[in-house]
Amino acid sequence: MAALDGFRGLMTLFVLVSHYIAEVPHGKSVFAVAWIAVIAFFVLSGFLVGRLILEKQDRANFFVVFYVRRLCRTLPVYFVCVTLVFACVVYFGSAAWLDVRASFPLWSYLAFVQNFYFVSTNTIGAHWLAPTWTLAVEEQFYLIAPAFFFVVPRRRLLPALAAGLVLSVAFRAHVILTGALPPMAGMVLLPGIADTLICGLIAGVLWKTEGIPWQRYDLLLRVLPPVLLVATILLKLSDQGHGHNFEIFGRLLVAVAASAFILSLVRGAPEARRFNSRVLCFFSNTSYSIYLTHLTVLGLMHGLILSAQPDIGTPAQLLVTLAAVPVAVLVGWAGTKLVEQPITAYGRSWRWSTQQRVRSESSGRPFGAASPA
Questions:
Q1: pTM score, two decimals?
Q2: How far apart are CA 338 and CA 202, in angstroms?
Q3: Which of 135, 168, 245, 294 has its CA 20 to 30 A from that of 193?
Q4: pLDDT tens, 18-27?
């Protein structure tokens, strides 16, 4: 869907702008929108994965093909990026501009459990690898989501997903309000972020549900996102520095907004045409590699040229940051072309079986061995 590609591309630009211009010592906080992009990425992932599972779960080789394709899509560029960052840390030693706030073991990144180290140390570890916590959450989500769809009957999916959403928000509230776990647990662990992924799953299930009179809801789907974003801003302002409503509910409001927006795009809303841009689609195609490498590019350029961590407080710092943008795009494009696309193409060579799983008569759910379609 070209519009969804464009949406992903726009969120990639959000991340670049936020990390380069806003989330630095002299940054402009008005551009700090990476958190919105991360939520949108989670929702989009939930939508696409949920739709895929519903479409293909009856295939006899579902689990094999699903996980081979996921691993080929996510692991190669990720492993290259993690390895390069660790090599830089070893090569440049204790240079302060490396910004390593805590040393997490390499295996924690390779096993996608670095988010647990975030919580146990209350730091983000190596700053250049900070965005990888989202990949850890997604990989953990990929382990659970298919099993969930196989265990829960189709007619009970939406109530079960709604219950999971409530439990996720409750977990986040418990962490924030009681201090039973470090505050970061509600931000980077799957239970605390699951409501955003579940919003995407719910949107995917709704999209694959027959009989919904979508034309009745088209206007609502278009109006809901800006309304919820304004509500999120008001929630933030209402806390006035001492409340926790934004921390607990703000993420959910943005996730629901993103879900409604995605459904409006696939419904062909007028806004969808604006996301068919070649520029946005380019950033969509290279989004994964750019997301993984852009902080490394920025940090290396500032470190090697100015011997300092990234900032925009001086003309020299701003110029280096601006120069880092095309370099980050080029590195992301190279990673996509040389690593990601060839191995992803191999993953797609694993075809879905024409055979289906035997269904139990009582539930209609996939039951066991393959039988002729």
A1: 0.93
A2: 35
A3: 294
A4: 999 999 999 9
